[in-house]
Amino acid sequence: MHNELMESGTTLPGMTSRNNSDTLTKETTLTKRSQRDIGTPSSAWRSRADAWEFLGYAFKQLAKGRPGTPSRSGLQDQAVQALRLLQAMELYWAAPGLASVARLLGCVDSGDYDAGLEMIRGMSHLMPSASPGPASPAPAYPGRVGPEPGQPGAGRSISGLPDEGSREPQPASERPRFEVLFVDDITEQEAETLKAEMLAQRRPSDAFAYELIVVPSYEDALVALVLNPAIQACILRPGFTIGSSQPLGRDLKKYLGGLVSPELAGMPPLGRFLSLAEQISELRPELDVYLVAGVAMESLAGSLTKRFRRIFRRQDNLDLHLSLLSGVAERYRTPFFAALQEYSRRPASVFHALPISRGGSVGNSPWIRDMVDFYGMNLLLAETSATSGGLDSLLDPHGSLKEAQDLAARAFGSQKTFFVTNGTSTANKIVHQSILAPGNVVLVDRNCHKSHHYAFVLAGAQVSYLDAYPLDKFAFYGAVPLATIKARLLAYRRAGRLDEVKMITLTNCTFDGIVYDVERVMEECLAIKPDLVFLWDEAWFAFARSHPVFRRRTAMAAARKLEASFTDPGYVARHAEQAASLHDAVTGAPADDELWLETRLIPDPAKARLRVYATQSTHKTLTSLRQGSMIHVFDQDFSEHNQESFREAYMTHTSTSPNYQILASLDIGRRQVELEGFGLVQKQADLATIVAQAVARHPLLKKYFRVLTSRDLIAAPYRETGSAMPLRDGLAALADAWQHDEFVVDPSRLTLDISRTGVDGDTFRHRYLADKHGIQVNKTSRNTVLFMTNIGTSRSAVAYLIEVLVKLAESFEEEWPARKTPDAGLAAGLTGATPPLPDFSSFARRFRRDPLSPDGDLRAAYFESYKDGATTYLSAGDLKARIAQGEEVVSAGFVTPYPPGFPILVPGQVITGKALEFMAALDTREVHGFDSGRGYRVFTR
């Protein structure tokens, strides 16, 4: 890192030079120093952390060096460069802040490096972390976050235990710390006075510590929100201006251009702060927003309650201070985790199940004592089957669990949220069984997770499989084009069977990171079938809620957006105009399907019902123990049409002995989403970009590896924008692609093309990554390996991955020293020879309602295999011979390579030669439903 900064003329990551000079000249006054642009916001956290870290190194070396030496002069120039970068950025952070940057620049001007070094050391606790997710300091009272004595709810800690008055409050520096954005155009002296007034409200009993950031303008407020994840609350006063005077880079300016309306200049103050409040809610919906008004605040209160948590007079500093703490405390609360902690601290005797509870069967055992040594006593103390004493029943929650689920619904934007302790496989089955009945038609991506297919067997639905576009060269599928979905719905309408279609199920995002435009898919489907129910399998997409760009493509955000659109008079008028063009003026009959397919459809707001479900594997992309999942519901007809059936389905699939540790971890994971999710997800995506850029730039890495881009993974018809890697091109490019393209790629997923190594994906995963270097990945294809960053990924882990890839590339060079380029023949063996991906063929005639029906009775086929003599096993060779002779051979079971976990064959499906060719070329070790000794299980007739 130091070497990167110390190269002559190098700009810090994510930043660009305003004066284009290769060297920096030392000026005697701060005003003459040319500042640096703030570049890509997604990497600003890294640039800022590196700059502060480098300054610590630089001042230490400068304090030890001799004046006038060339090395000292160069290091001094680079310290100035780092300070200029921070001069542009520190306005948007409370600490260390602009004043600290100014003082350090003064130290450079005067040559007093010892004073500068001492100053940096004194600010070490305020320095930004160079790794994602720094741990917050402990609370002033362990377990206590909440109201103070005399306030409502005082006397109990967040864990539910009485406050221990004998404990001495800890220093503010050891409490969780956050920052508050204050937006008003005031002088520097007024800002310092304001900070001092708020600082004076602090008390030793405060659970948190915070600092104020004061920015003067609408644009500066938005910049602060996208740069600084430590902000937990915003305070608006009507005096702020619109434009920023900071040196914003091209990317930030373009991104702001999409947020800041030209009409702001003509708005009165009320309109401006309402607009800003709405933008804050769009960018960071978890934040509390307060308004500090002047005169006539009473007249504003009734009309602004939805946009502001509270409205204050300028003199109400104490109430404002308490509200800031209370707002964060509300998000910090984890009711079930706290109840479980409290339970574990109580003395108890168990005369029921679970000998392991309280460590009873373990603690005194000479044979299994190592379980306590490994897991610790807290796990055993919290292991219980009790549902009272502050705990709750997952099957009938009324207390701490219900409250925890309600908080999760708020965090993820749903109407209701349900915790699931045995994974999204079970969550999917619950939703399907609650919606589908025998005979209902469900449209589903054939490549969805196997849990959906088993759910259809249980529900008895007629399954209509949709084919995703294939990526034959890389041996995996993309996603289902909207045109394919619309064509299938229109075909059912043409056949007079649209009323039978109940539901559509799609995976968003796919295992390989392909993300749908959820809002558009639902909008156009509802224009054809107004009561269609949607299940979005977001097993790999729970993190997306925390990022303003990713969020718009989540099921819950899209449902809320459509709900708002349906009440817009302009939207209603656009639908009426379109409906007239899509129906015969005399008969009212729909126009030809071709016109419907070519038109971006608008549903009838008076008829469309938003019935949207999302299942998320919290444990996959957020903090939770394994199998911790959630079901999010946005269903306008839930109470009337699905509440009882959902309850029964939940009872059917949920254990009466749920794991309390998993439930507590879901509660904790929700807290993290609301308090630090934005920063963690921003870093997650940025770290993936670092890997992609390293592979593209390193001469040896790019010889053997290539990270697939949007142009590889998404065909041109589905990409309106042209960027190959939008996040690499900046936040504005990312937002543009996610706003307009039919499909986008999750930037935290990197599909690495390894075909030029001559090694297949499965071997690369096990022998080269796991066995040799301890790197764990899950998904491979014949010639690709999928890497994912997550909120727990560190910069050290990314550096190690790059280092390992370089070592592997070096080993390939040593294995084939005579080659100047990777072996074309080996590469061809991993690409050109791979057979095309097989589409879903069809259900056998006896499992379809009529010869033209695309849907089949999966349940009937599944249970037919239970009959004596109904099935047999055939080898691949025998199957291929029968198919070649024109015989129809029907699969009697699921055949599912894992990963990724979607079936190549399902019960009742006609087996084709293409499916057999693809299975023969697979290098996946684990294939569920296929017996390598006996072959494929098929029906005897």
Number of helices: 36
Radius of gyration: 30 Å
Helix/strand/pairing class, anyone?
Answer: alpha/beta
Integer average pLDDT: 88
Q: Spans with pLDDT under 50 lasting ≥5 residues?
A: 1-34, 132-136, 138-167
Strand content range: 5-15%
Head-to-tail CA distance between termini? 68 Å
List the strand order in the largest sheet. 6-15-14-13-11-7-8-20
Biggest beta sheet attributes: 8 strands, mixed
How many extended strands? 24
Helix content: 40-55%
What can you tell me about this protein's structure?
It is a single chain. By secondary structure, the protein is an alpha/beta fold. The strands form seven sheets. An eight-stranded mixed sheet has the order 6-15-14-13-11-7-8-20, sandwiched between helices. α2 (44-64) packs antiparallel against α3 (70-89), α2 packs across α5 (113-122) and α16 crosses α25. The longest helix is centred in the last third of the chain and has 38 residues, at 660-697.
Strand and helix layout:
Layout: H1 2-6, H2 44-64, H3 70-89, H4 97-110, H5 113-122, E1 177-183, H6 188-199, E2 209-215, H7 218-227, E3 231-236, H8 250-257, H9 269-283, E4 288-293, H10 297-304, E5 310-313, H11 317-332, H12 335-345, H13 369-375, H14 377-381, H15 400-412, E6 416-420, H16 423-435, E7 441-445, H17 450-459, E8 462-466, E9 470-471, E10 476-477, H18 482-494, E11 501-507, E12 514-516, H19 518-528, E13 533-537, H20 548-551, H21 555-566, H22 569-582, H23 593-598, E14 611-616, H24 618-621, E15 629-635, H25 638-653, H26 660-697, H27 701-704, E16 706-707, H28 710-713, H29 726-729, H30 731-740, E17 743-745, E18 749-753, H31 761-773, E19 784-788, H32 795-815, H33 824-830, E20 856-857, H34 858-864, E21 871-874, H35 876-884, E22 896-898, H36 913-921, E23 926-928, E24 936-939
Parallel strand pairs: 1-2, 1-3, 3-4, 4-5, 7-8, 7-11, 11-13, 13-14
Antiparallel strand pairs: 6-15, 8-20, 9-10, 12-17, 14-15, 16-18, 18-19, 21-24, 22-23
